[in-house]
Write a structure and sequence with these properties.
The complex is a heterodimer. By secondary structure, chain A is of the alpha/beta class. In chain A, 47% of the residues lie in helices and 15% in strands. In chain A, α7 crosses α9, α8 crosses α9 and α16 crosses α17. Classes of the chains: A alpha/beta, B alpha/beta.
């Protein structure tokens, strides 16, 4: 199903086959194409290139054109401090510095960076007709904070009318901005109002609800979809947010997804979130990303849920982490694997596998989710099953389906990370891909040859002739040499005439003959104490 | 290089954070290399300029570029701070977190990022403006959060007339039963550059204090845990830590404040608020990954 269609279905609370995925790519798009944040946010071409690259890499169902909550503020006279790796920051607040509302105006569509964004939207619309394009506008409360500075918090208390006036002004701007973005081709308008996380529900209902509700109603009138983004500790306001009549609320890691799910679904709207931005996506690895994504998918469910990061992706988020999420979203089988592993990893008592694969036979282990229910696993098992008999009993194979606990332990002990995987004598040989028959045979044969070489190398014998009388020793040596020749053996013969050396073998009086069998027990590895004990017992 | 103690000073706008900082600089700047990080949402650089006027020697990192109020903007913070540390090699770091900052996120960043190898969270202060605390009533969501996570609460400006400090004290205790609360005027408080819990076990003053293996770490989760499991969890991990503290959301919607100093465990129910479970540990015996995993398994 096409991304936009899938999102519409989720927004309409219809069950979906697969959860829609919307990576909030903002300046991260710049990172993908190698330009800094400032250059990126000021250029239509760069934005189009960055978003296109993100679409190509992350296979999303929807994507924001841009994530920049300073765009409106800049036009209204807030000074911006630009940065290379971040969206800019607002560092001056006109209404706190002598300006009044009368000095400000509602931006028209050609002001500031609005044309950059609307043009990027048009181009992306044309290029990706089936993908949902999110147009983001600065929420009225956050914009009011940009204009008034932190005075707004005291004024909520001391001068509520003044705050209301500014909120109303910011709402007019929100309405206009959403109009520009819808005209340019956006499907979903997201009102992004992170600063509302700073206030309590009563303040929210008094100062935010009446204003944002107007914006959401207007978007609905224009027959487009809307979303209310918030980040930070906004759990107290979720219900109030839903009551503002958006089509969707989207939250970050500070709020439990199941909490939002419960309220949103009860109110008849969809919800999204809340992959962990910094600790997981930015600083974690692919396993962390998968685990977190799975937790979200499992909590969110397949009705009315949209998987997304908690907020704007940090610029330098490793693409591999986001790709790991993409893979997981699109592959329910991968989800099963991560789920199984997470369930069981915890109580693992890892086997000591140092000496695995030292037996005479070659052991082929196939680690699977379960070859009966997972197609790639089944093919891998079959490949091994077909090949093994050709070695006439030298090769033994086993399947380890990680739905069983001991298989998980086994898998972790061999340090196998992906499924399905083939190990030959405990060494990872084929990961995920089903090997062609020839390659599999060659790999097993190689191991057999290695073992054979080892066996040949491992045997060396000596015969020692001990005696003080050189003539007697020569005589014995001649006999031994003849025996060796007749048997075709490779044995070294040494003569020892030194008395103290003879005594070392317990021989007081020669001649004596000692046979010595050397056996190579390990090579290139440090044997464990237990293993050494076993060897000693054999002596 | 041994790890640098990192202190957070939070508090609502105008509560006296900068005054407190100035006082710390006055007292310690001659003796130690101090690094100050300022993150103020207020008009740029005002506080920075104030501090510089003191004429004392310290290094200042200003993060105006994106206030640390939202997780989206924290990534860059790590990069800037790392550079700052490498350049100036401070012996102690203090962040003046804006009144809108999420101090747990800051602590979490320190414990999860590459910064963990260089610094540890030594203390978390919250300055409360005695006069304005009740007035920020409508929007004290963030103040409450900062208060919860503080080890040290300073009630400032208690000398102003007409204040009911007792009532304020009760209110703060309800939010954070374990923090040490100090009342003061002009933010004159006994500030230690190391960590209190550590000081008890490592004698000697500052120079020998920053221990190489100390890690601070944060668990933040929206999952809930059973009371019995929490007790098991704390019994196991407290013995391995200098200190564990924070708030835990229990199944059945109770919220508990938790404080463990070595194996002495205190758990106390508090008014529930809409916050995730947040636990901070100071230890030299385990990693964040282990700790996090152990907690998750019990949820």
């Amino acid at each position: 199903m096409k991304g936009l269609e899938l999102l519409k279905k989720a927004f309409a609370l219809q069950p979906v086959e697969r959860v829609p995925w919307v990576p909030f790519v903002g300046v991260h798009g710049g990172f993908l194409i190698g330009v800094d944040a400032e250059t990126y946010l000021k250029s239509t071409d760069k934005i189009v290139a960055g978003v296109s690259k993100a679409i190509e890499e992350y296979n999303p169902d929807g994507i924001p054109v841009i994530f920049d909550l300073q765009l409106e503020a800049e036009i209204l006279g807030c000074r911006l401090q630009w940065a290379l790796h971040n969206p800019p920051a607002v560092v001056s607040h006109p209404l706190a510095e002598g300006k009044t509302l009368a000095d400000l105006h509602i931006p028209n569509s050609s002001e500031g960076r609005i044309p950059v964004i609307t043009e990027a939207t048009r181009q992306l619309r044309k290029k990706y007709p089936d993908l949902a394009l999110y147009g983001l506008i600065t929420g009225p409360f956050t914009l009011a904070l940009h204009l008034m500075g932190t005075d707004i918090f005291m004024k909520l208390f001391e001068a509520p009318d003044e705050v209301n006036e500014v909120m109303d002004f910011c709402t007019r701007i929100g309405l206009k901005m959403s109009e520009y973005l819808i005209e340019a081709g956006c499907d979903i308008i997201a009102v992004v109002d992170p600063m509302t996380s700073q206030i309590d529900p009563v303040t929210f209902e008094t100062f935010v609800t009446p204003f944002v509700s107007e914006i959401f109603d207007d978007i609905r009138k224009k027959q487009k979809l809307s979303s209310f983004f918030v980040c930070g500790h906004a759990q107290q306001n979720i219900e109030a947010m839903c009551d503002c009549r958006p089509d969707n609320v989207s939250i970050d890691e500070n709020i439990p997804l199941d909490f939002v799910k419960q309220i949103a679904l009860k109110k008849g709207i969809s919800f999204g979130g809340n992959l962990r931005l910094t600790v997981v996506l930015l600083m974690g690895n692919e396993d962390d990303a998968r685990e977190d994504a799975l937790a979200c998918l499992d909590l969110g469910g397949k009705t009315g849920f949209i998987l997304a990061p908690g907020c704007d992706l940090p610029m330098e988020t490793p693409p591999a982490n986001i790709k790991a999420v993409t893979e997981l979203v699109h592959d329910s089988y991968k989800q099963d694997v991560v789920r199984e592993l997470e369930k069981k990893e915890s109580t693992l008592d890892v086997f000591n596998m140092k000496d695995y694969g030292q037996a005479d036979k070659v052991i082929v282990d196939v680690i699977t989710l379960d070859s009966e229910s997972c197609a790639p696993c089944q093919y891998m098992v079959e490949a091994v099953k077909r090949v093994a008999p050709q070695f006439e009993g030298v090769v033994e194979w086993r399947e380890h389906a990680i739905k069983k606990m001991d298989a998980v332990t086994f898998m972790s002990s061999l340090m196998v990370k992906n499924i399905p995987t083939i190990c030959i004598d405990g060494k990872i040989a084929f990961v995920s891909q089903i090997p062609p028959k020839g390659e599999l045979i060659a790999a097993i044969q190689k191991r057999i040859n290695e073992k054979l070489k080892l066996r040949i190398k491992s045997k060396r014998s000596e015969i020692l002739i001990l005696g003080e009388d050189a003539a007697v020793c020569r005589e014995i040596n001649a006999k031994i040499q003849r025996a060796i020749t007749e048997l075709g053996k490779d044995v070294e013969v040494k003569v020892i005439t030194d008395k103290p050396q003879m005594a070392a073998f317990g021989v007081v009086k020669g001649p004596a003959v000692v046979t010595v069998n050397y056996k190579l027990k390990s090579e290139g590895a440090e044997p464990s104490l237990d293993v050494v004990k076993e060897w000693i017992k054999e002596l | 290089m041994s790890k640098i103690p990192f202190h957070i000073i939070s508090g609502f706008l105008g509560s006296g954070k900068t005054t407190f900082l100035k006082w710390i600089i006055e007292k310690f700047a001659g003796e130690y290399k101090i690094g100050i990080i300022q993150n103020e949402f207020a008009p740029a650089n005002i506080d920075g300029a104030e501090l510089k006027k003191s004429g004392k020697n310290f290094q200042l990192l200003e993060i105006n570029n994106g206030s640390v109020f939202c997780v989206c903007l924290l990534g860059n913070f790590v990069r800037s701070l790392e550079k700052f540390i490498d350049k100036h090699q401070p012996e102690v770091l203090i962040i003046e977190a804006s009144g809108l900052s999420d101090t747990t996120s800051v602590a979490e960043l320190i414990s999860a990022s590459t910064l963990a190898g260089k610094i540890y969270l030594a203390s978390n202060w919250c300055i409360v403006d005695a006069q304005n605390f009740s007035r920020v009533g409508l929007m004290k969501q963030r103040v409450i959060h900062q208060l919860r996570m503080a080890d040290e609460v300073v009630i400032n400006k208690t000398d102003l007339p007409g204040l009911d400090n007792e009532k304020l004290l009760v209110e703060i205790r309800k939010l954070n039963p374990f923090a040490r609360i100090t009342e003061t005027t002009f933010c004159k408080i006994d500030f230690q550059l190391g960590n209190l819990a550590l000081n008890k076990f490592y004698f000697g003053e500052m120079k020998t204090l920053p221990r190489p293996e100390i890690n601070s770490m944060v668990i933040k989760t929206t999952r809930k845990i059973k009371y019995e499991s929490l007790v098991d969890f704390l019994e196991y991990w407290a013995a391995k830590s200098f200190r564990i503290k924070g708030f835990v959301n229990l199944t059945g919607n109770t919220v508990c404040a938790v404080q463990c100093v070595f194996d002495e465990i205190q758990i106390q129910p508090v008014d529930s608020g809409f916050f995730p479970t947040e636990l901070v540990a100071l230890t030299e015996n385990f990693t964040l990954r282990e700790w996090n995993k152990a907690f998750r398994e019990l949820c």
